[in-house]
């Protein structure tokens, strides 16, 4: 499995997220081989479904936002992603990892319980 590319600017934001994290080791866990492979698998499976167009996505259990970043780097043409996680430490990390998309108004991270949160409602 191989993602076609990841923008260098995104990789720099990933490094900022690790460097600025209160718990660097925990943030690094987002980039472990198994974590990345499973996310790349999902992105490639979605690409095979040819789900291109004006897509708004909610990721429940979005953790540190790496999946969102990979989706933005895919061929899917994602318009907007909301990343929802109950852990309040994830929001700042996810916003840093996806900083360029946050600046563009295409990404936001929310601290909420997925059971009661309606992202796209």
Can you give a write-up of this model?
The structure is a single chain. With about 120 residues, the protein is α/β, with parallel strands linked by helices. The chain is built from 6 helices and 3 strands. The chain has helices at about 10-20, 25-30, 35-50, 65-70, 90-95, 100-105; strands at about 55-60, 80-85, 105-110. The protein has a 3-stranded parallel sheet with strand order 1-2-3.
Q: Strand-and-helix sequence, N→C?
A: HHHEHEHHE
Our estimate of the beta-strand percent is 15-25%
**Structural class, from secondary structure content?**
alpha/beta
Strand order of the largest sheet: 1-2-3
Core attributes:
single chain, 121 residues, alpha/beta, three-stranded parallel β-sheet, 6 helices, globular
Nutshell version of this structure?
It contains 6 helices and 3 strands; from the N terminus they run H-H-H-E-H-E-H-H-E. It has 121 residues and is α/β, with parallel strands linked by helices.
């Amino acid at each position: 499995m191989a993602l076609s590319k990841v923008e260098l600017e995104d990789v720099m934001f990933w490094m900022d997220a690790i460097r600025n994290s209160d718990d660097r080791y925990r943030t690094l866990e987002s980039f472990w081989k198994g974590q990345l492979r499973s996310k790349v698998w999902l992105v490639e499976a979605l690409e095979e479904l040819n789900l291109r167009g004006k897509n708004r996505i909610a990721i429940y259990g979005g953790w540190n936002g790496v999946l969102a970043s990979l989706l933005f780097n895919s061929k899917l043409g994602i318009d907007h992603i909301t990343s929802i996680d109950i852990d309040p430490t994830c929001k700042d990390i996810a916003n840093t990892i996806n900083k360029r998309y946050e600046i563009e108004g295409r990404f936001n991270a929310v601290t909420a319980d997925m059971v009661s949160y309606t992202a796209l409602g």
